[in-house]
Amino acid sequence: MNKNIKFVILVILSIILSFSYCTSTKTSKEDKKDYFQIERRKLLKTKGDIKSVGDAIMQYVLSNGKAPDISDIDELNNMNFPYFSRLGSLRDAWGNKYLYLLDEEDDSSFYIASSGRDGSFEGWEQSGRYDITEFDHYNNDIIYSNGGFVYTSN
After folding, report:
1. Nearest partner of 130 among 119, 120, 139, judged by Cα
2. Is residue 138 part of a domain?
3. Residue 51 is part of which domain span?
4. Mean pLDDT of 112-135
5. 8 within some domain
6. pTM of the entire structure?
């Protein structure tokens, strides 16, 4: 009788643990969907933030006739220009610092970039649009110049 009680208790515990596990975890497909949505929100936030920084720099160009001559985008925070005081963090939604480039041939032209989820920037010569159909596509860079995106997702 003692063995039967132990067996029944073991079966009941197994059922409870199995039920608990099944109700508290999602399928891997649901996990991927949630993760994909989180990365999508990060991408959209990054694009919005880059546009805001770009708009502030465009105001600077309109006021000064040229884009800021800086080597690091964080230097915008130290410049005495009202639009720059509202920028906040100059990092993308993945925590990577935005990149900045002043056009060597036209000092009123500039580029701002995010190095994407992986933080690895592939270069300023990228242009066009890309689809995001896999997680790795969030590693793609985003590049903005003079009022518009030159390399970005659809």
Report:
1. 139
2. yes
3. 29-153
4. 96
5. no
6. 0.79
